[in-house]
Amino acid sequence: MKRKKYNPSPLDFTEVKLSDEMLELTDSLARNVHEIWAKNRIEHGWSYGPARDDALKRHPCIIPYDELSEEEKLYDKNTAMETIKAILSLGFEIRKAPTTSGH
Questions:
Q1: Are 27 and 73 in contact (CB under 8 A)?
Q2: Comparing C-alpha atoms, which of 23, 42, 24 is closest to residue 34?
Q3: Which of 11, 55, 59, 76 could link 33 by a cystine bridge, Cβ 3.0 to 4.6 Å?
Q4: pLDDT at 15
Q5: φ/ψ bin of 95: left (φ > 0), alpha (ψ from -120 to 50), beta (otherwise)
Q6: Going by C-beta distance under 8 Å and a sequence separation of 6 or more, which residues neighbour residue 7?
Q7: What is the DSSP letter of 53?
Q8: Cβ-Cβ contacts under 8 Å for 27 (sequence gap 6 or more)
Q9: Cβ(61)–Cβ(38) under 8 Å?
Q10: Distance of CA 34 to the CA centre of its chain
Q11: Domain boundary assignment for the chain
Q12: pLDDT of residue 92
């Protein structure tokens, strides 16, 4: 069966501007995206290697988030940012819960 050419068409959120609070959330989500990815890789037998090697299951990004290059962090940040923009554009609200003091 011949497959049709795939033309990705994500929703356009270029007009959505995120508040400082949402940008802070983006950073937290980006860190978590990396942690989930790395944990999944490790669970499937992958480990750190200086270059990606699918046969040996080695990847240079299986390191703590803080040690990633800014370029690698940007990949995770963009994923998180686009997800937040999608949630907001679809009419959902994201609010930080008020912190409670011991009083």
A1: no
A2: 42
A3: 76
A4: 86
A5: beta
A6: none
A7: B
A8: 77, 80
A9: yes
A10: 6
A11: 20-89
A12: 94
Architecture of the domain whose range is 20-89: Orthogonal Bundle (1.10)
Residue type for position 61: C
CB proximity list for 70: less than 8 A, separation 6 or greater: none
Contacts of 53 (CB under 8 A, 6+ apart): 59
The rounded average pLDDT for each run of 10 residues, N- to C-terminus, in the chain (103 residues) is 90 88 93 96 98 98 97 94 93 86 59
Quick one: pLDDT at residue 98?
A: 85
Closest by CA position to 88, among listed 22, 9, 32: 22
Structure tokens at 102: 């011991």
CA distance 56 to 50: 12
Q: Which residue type sits at 41?
A: R
For residue 103, what are its two tokens?
Answer: 């009083």
The overall longest dimension of the chain from CA atoms, in Å, is 67
Question: Are the beta carbons of 3 and 79 closer than 8 angstroms?
Answer: no
Residue 103: the pLDDT is 55
